[in-house]
Amino acid sequence: CNKDLNRLPANSVFADSVYRNVAGYQGALATVYAGYTLTGSQGPASSDIAGVDAGTSDFVRCLWNVQELSTDEAVCAWGDPGVPDFHNMSWTSSDPILIGLYARSLYQITLCNDFITHCTASAESGAKISGSDTVTIAEMRAEARFLRAFQYAVLMDAFANPPFATETTPVGPLSFPKQIQRADLFKYVESELLACATSLPAPRTNVYGRADQAAAWALLARIYLNAGVYTGTNRYTDAITWSSKVIGAGYTLMPHYANLFEGDNNVNNTEQILSIPYDGINTQTYGGTTFLVNSACANSTYTPGSPGYAMSTANYGVPSGGWAGNRSTASLPALFPTPDSTKDKRGIFLNEPGVTSAIANISQFNQGVPVNKFTNITSTGVEAEPQAGGTFVSTDFPLFRLAEQYLIYAEAVLQGGTGGDATTALGYINLLRQRAYGNASGNISAGQLTLPFILDERGRELYWECFRRTDLIRFNEFTGGTYLWPWKGGVASGTAVDAHYAIYPIPVTDLQANSNLTQNPGY
Amino acid sequence: QSKVITGKITDTRDGTPLAGVSVVPKGSARGTTTGADGVFHLSVDKQPAALIISAVGYAQQEVAVGEGSINIKLVAGSSTSLGEVVVIGYGTVKKKDVTGSVSTVTLKDFQQGSITSPEQLIVGKVAGVTITSNGGQPGSGSTIRIRGGASLNASNDPLVVIDGLPLSSANFEGINPNDIESFNVLKDAASAAIYGSRASNGVILITSKHGKAGKAVINFAPQISASYNPKEYPVLSAGQFRTLVNTYGTPTQVAFLGSASTDWQKQIYQTAVTSDNNLNVSGSLYTVPYYLSGEFLSQDGILKTDNLKREALFLSLSPHLFNNYLKIDINVHGSNTDSRTANTSAVGSAVTFDPTQPVYNSKSPFGGYFEWMTNDTTPQSLSNRNPVALLQQYNAQNHALRSFGNIQIDYKLHFLPDLHANLNLGYDVARHDGTYRVPANAAQNYNAIPTLRGQNNQYYNNFKNKVLEWYFNYVKDLKALNSNINAMGGYGYYDNYNHNKNYPSISAANDTIPGTTPVYPTSFSEVTLQSWYGRLIYTYNDKYVLMGSIRTDGSSRFAPKYRWGVFPAGAFSWKASRESFLQDVHWLSDLTVRLSYGLTGNQDGIPYYSYLNYYSLSGNTNQIDFGNNYSNFYSPSAFAADLKWEQTTTSDAGLDFGFLNNRITGSVDYYYKKTRDLLATVFVPTLSNFGNQLTRNVGNMKDEGVDFNIRATVIRTNNLSWDVGFNVGYNKFTITNLTVSQDSLAKLVNYNVGGINGGTGNTIQVHSVGYSPFSFYVLQQIYNAKGQPIEGAYVDQNRDGIINQNDLIHYKSPFAPFTFGFSTSLNYHKWSISTVLRASVGNYVYNNAASNNAVIRNVLNPVGFLENAPSSILNTHFYNNQFFSSYYVENASFLKMDNLGIAYNAGYLAKNSYNLRLSLNCQNVFTVTKYTGSDPEIYGGIDNVLYPRPRTFTLGAKLSF
How far apart are the first and last CA of chain A? Predict the structure, then answer.
């Protein structure tokens, strides 16, 4: 009769059934990728993590808020918890979006640790896996190591000193992971990437949406470019080495910049190194590109000739969507020769009647520059595949693409890194300019290729792709008063902010749960 | 040389012969029962001192035996729940032997009027018990808290036991309140601990009406009620709204103003009619007392389109066989409920919909209802929806079948009559299914793709709960020792099984919404409990009572190692008034001192399987694209392998008193509850589990308070009587610890709770050490000289020059420290008048409807529509939402008159052939409060415009024959 107390959940399995064969391992690896794609496993309103609204809790949405709303590239009309704190630069350790990015990254690391544990030799033999399956599983293990290194790199950039655990810490029993210092974490991420790069599939040979060697090289190039910030020691030569490897791996720029951020950007994309794939039906989330597209638009009621303002979500491929949140400050279009795409086609800003680029009140969505870069329209100009409700988006988010590697190469050369040369650097930059202008009219000369130009060019090429905060910090323009943009520090004209805001605080939820953690300075 | 004693037993009221009455010689175990004519023949060996006459529904009598036939008249009274006997867990005790804090409310003290759910019968009647209806929707239920509750994330609902059948949850669906005879509320651990595992939040024992010996009595009680919304949520009138838009709006926004003057709240509410007809028959068929009742209820909601129809049946049979050696109690309840539930989002929408717009617009493609649109065919996706359309274009049909009941067999062993064996077999099954239909032309279910508009969805679930209990009970008078012992021991098995069918979402055109096809067509879950329990009550000299009990429970929610919990309790009572030094104090009729201490457990309300590390397949909208090959993935859930019972210790010291021959009676109790190993959902260290939050055993909470109640018969003459009852409850909660961590950082822990409307993920409450659970966590508002709040001006608590989360303060709690109840009835000849008043003092409510909507930014939406604002905007003139302003945390203390009634009891008419009683009643008569919303009584303290609790007038009759 006591056996009646052993009740088991329906429609569920235990680890030994999951890790039984290659298909099971693949299902579990999908879980690891789901960790940075979705918010949860049971619909777009479910979440794996707590302390933040479920729909806000995915990786891209949190990362975007953290990397873009804190800069000159974006403001948000919403009063949602934590959101105004980014452009006000007044965030605290209880900011739910910071909790979201932190817990999401660490959740994915936990999934990676668990997966890697199950990929050890003993687990495989227990599951009676042999032959070519062993190789497949070893490749999957390398992918999990890459994703773990990627998430640690994000934490290193945003929070500097996160808690740290590898597959040697079992998941489940209560434990209190130790904190790792930023420079030590750099060493760990570097060594993991160097190690897993050899086991990953060769560039452009893995299934779309999964990591290959080039992804690991691209991330190495990215962290070496920022090594001075993370460790105090510049590694520009290494940045040149690894970006060159990526550039040499056969990727080419897509002919049209706009197509990189459209509903069919997964099709024949020669520039993409690694994306997070989304689908309006099968991969639904209120984060990801669904967030990027919907939060940037709204359907407004407008009568031509009257002083209202016009905006249609149909321009963004989400006829039933539109959340009226994000747009840019006037600083972003100011980087372009004209505040639109007439010359530089990368400036995808809408100039709608009734919209002002100056922002008197952040909560008014018609103040600020509408950004039409991410859309759910396909390259042929139709809405991406039919989907429920016209809200969820099928556009993939680019984590690594070739253009960034060109920019890394050029910047590292200008910074004095060896192994590259200025002519090649100029060539790479002009490849980007030629695509942007459609011809050579925008090309620059060797003399024009300066570090400030690189920062601006990164703004033009990579805006809204989660780079801006890191870039401004590397150029020492994020905190302090050297560079002011509208609403920096919560003031319309911008104001200087304290240097400690260059590193985000460890969220209070984890500080309280784990006494091994120490708060970052200034919070 | 045997002898036969003969006699006849009749009812005092009308002289009808009573069948099935037990007649037993005093001091013996063997007796007889009366036949249909009320006559008995009892063979005895020797002349007994007296006969003990007992029958269900009548007070027991002891009759001296003389020569010849005896005529005995029995006085009607209820069965076990009334008089000197009190129902406790697994048995009854004499009232004088009660050692714990037990409150009894019987038929005559119930709330009157249109009562459609059982718990409403005792609102305001028991000190320390708060019952908050979840709003005015028919069938919406209530939240019941006994002494505040003991847990954070596990359940705080009391255990409900109906005629010995423990229900799996405090679910009163389909139960006809007219079938209930009495409630016993076990408040302290010593009385409740015998229910061990589920007793931390108190126990409510409900006794149904049962058949009485004697001829059949038929009661017919028709009742008709009219209800209406007593108070609208205060919003701007069309005129005030126009002024506001003209003052602050751009010319475009002004152009959006309509020419109508619509009171949207008037448009959605109606005067609702309820008819409730009860018919019951009770009596005795041969020797089997029975009670059979039927109810037909049809209740309209005051929100248009709301209706609930219920047919309920209840049969109880209580045969006593073999001279009462074998008592069988059979109870079967069945109900069928059909309801159409209104779309309650209309309640909030009516508060914010533009009052200058008309209900209908002939050009509208949305069924002719005015809606905000972005062009001729598309509704504005960010605006609210026409409240009338939300109601009329939404049709939710629900069907619920429920049956529960039990058979309880109590056998007094022939060779040892002091020992009873009791077997209780019970069941509770229900099935719910229904459909949601919204037409394709409704704006509320708009889709860009025409075939995906509207909805045609269905749901289905059922549950099956099983109960098996057996126990032995030994009761013995030890005359030589001047003692009595009452020992009980037994076993219980409880199984709850839930089953759901999963359906895709279907559009009005019967197309499946892409991605909504469920991965599994069905899902089920099951939780099982097993228990062993025992209790010993020792009474000495009728003055000192000592009680000890122990229960051990095993729950399938925990791993085998942590599965079993042990829950002991002890209590002592001293009948001081029986001491010789108080015998001469004539005005003192009763004085009893009670002390008790006990440990109870809790495991309800947490996930069923959270100790297990299992993986579930993701849903079909959660697939991962591996090169256009979408695959579902295995998602692990966070788990705590060492999860165990939450434990509450309760100490209770009480005093029962009676004065002036018990014309004034009452009791006062002090209690102190401490819960440890709280089942709390807390943050756990990242990287240690699959998720950063988990339900674990962490922290402690304490809860202390005082219950006081007094009843008095102020006047008692032949024609006039006046009764008064009054109770007070005081309760204070504090969280004393809340962390998984090892050290002093624990003091800082704040868990955000209390999600509010407005923005995504905003919360207004917090669990913090040193404060009440669900304390409001806000910024301290600064006011101008006129007393109006200044937008964005808050006290910079940490003086860092920035107003942010670090400046939030704990400010008040939604729980009332003081609750009061007052009941009185005045009877004069055949007339009686009665009322119930209830007050709550010191509870606060966050006015979310105001904080979310009473801002100019919301009134004048830049994308091109207007929304109305709650009247508080006239005081604040806030432009942007100030969600965290302490201004919105309002004092919601209130005094309510729940009930005012007058009744005329015509008595026996037409040569005693029938009895007639007429009554007129008003419920929810008035509310006195400073709260600025529509109703201050909001469980949980976050007001998003409650479905109004109606004011109801009821005309009722009761005909007995």
Answer: 56
Q: What confidence category does residue A124 fall into, taking pLDDT thresholds of 50, 70 and 90?
A: low
- Cβ distance B144 to B203 under 8 Å? no
Interface test with B, best of A41, A383, A396 (most B CBs within 10 A): A41
Evaluate whether B360 touches B392 at the Cβ level (below 8 Å): no
**DSSP states of A193-232:** HHHHHHHSPPTTTSPTTS--HHHHHHHHHHHHHTHHHHHS
What residues make up the domain containing A284?
279-379
Convert the pLDDT of each residue in B298-344 to its tens digit. Answer: 999 999 999 999 999 999 998 888 777 888 999 999 999 999 999 99
How far, in Å, CA of A497 to CA of B88, rounded?
Answer: 68
| A488 shares its domain with A350 | no
Give per-residue pLDDT as tens, B401-428: 999 999 999 998 888 888 989 999 999 9
Q: Which residue of A has its CA nearest to B804?
A: A90
Q: Are residues A351 and A218 in the same domain?
A: no
Burial of B128 (0-12, 13-18, 19+ CB in 10 A): buried
d(CA B702, CA A7): 33
CA distances from A122 to A116, A127, A148, A196 (A): 12, 9, 22, 20
Mutate to test the interface with B, among A110, A147, A278 (most CBs of B within 10 A): A110
- Find the CB nearest A43 among B513, B622, B689: B622
Q: Between residues A187 and B417, which one has the greater pLDDT?
A: A187
What architecture is the B3-74 domain classified under in CATH?
Answer: Sandwich (2.60)
* Three-state secondary-structure class, residue A472: helix
Same domain, A356 and A370: yes
Instruction: State the Cα–Cα distance between residues B177 and B206, nearest whole angstrom.
Output: 10
- CA proximity to B80, closest of B163, B179, B201: B163
Structure confidence by residue, pLDDT tens digits, B21-36: 888 887 776 778 787 7
Beta-bridged to residue B885, according to DSSP, are B779
Q: Give the span between the Cα atoms of A227 and A233, in whole angstroms.
A: 6
- Which residues on chain B are in Cβ contact (under 8 Å) with A282? 515, 620-621, 623, 625, 630
Within a domain: A390: no
Most distant CA pair in chain B: distance in Å? Answer: 112
Question: Of the candidates A325, A353, A379, which is a domain's last residue?
Answer: A379
**In this complex, which of B250, B374, B642 lies closest to A307 when CB atoms are compared?**
B250
Residue closest to A448 by CA, chosen among A488, A414, A481: A414
Alpha helices in B271-419 (DSSP H): 345-352, 387-392
Please report the ipTM that was assigned to this predicted complex.
0.92
For the segment(s) B85-208, the CATH number from 3.40.50.2000, 3.30.70.260, 2.170.130.10, 2.40.128.20 is 2.170.130.10
Parallel/antiparallel/unpaired status of strands B180-186 and B102-106: antiparallel
Residue for token pair 């099954």 = B429
Query: Parallel, antiparallel, or unpaired for β B634-636 and B679-683?
Result: unpaired
- B82 pLDDT more than 50: no
Inter-chain contact B636–A111, Cβ cutoff 8 Å?
yes
- Min Cα distance A362 → chain B (Å) is 10
CATH code for the domain of A152: 1.25.40.390
- Per the CB < 8 A criterion, the answer to whether B65 and B358 are in contact is no
Measured between CB atoms, does B618 come within 8 Å of chain A? yes
**Which candidate, A277, A289, A351, A368, places its Cα nearest to that of A321?**
A289
Domain ranges of chain B: 3-74, 85-208
Q: Which chain A positions have a beta carbon within 8 Å of B556's beta carbon?
A: 4-7
- The number of folded domains in chain A is 3
What residues 288-347 of chain B have any CB closer than 8 A to a CB of chain A? Answer: none
> Quick one: closest CA in B to A303, which residue?
B252
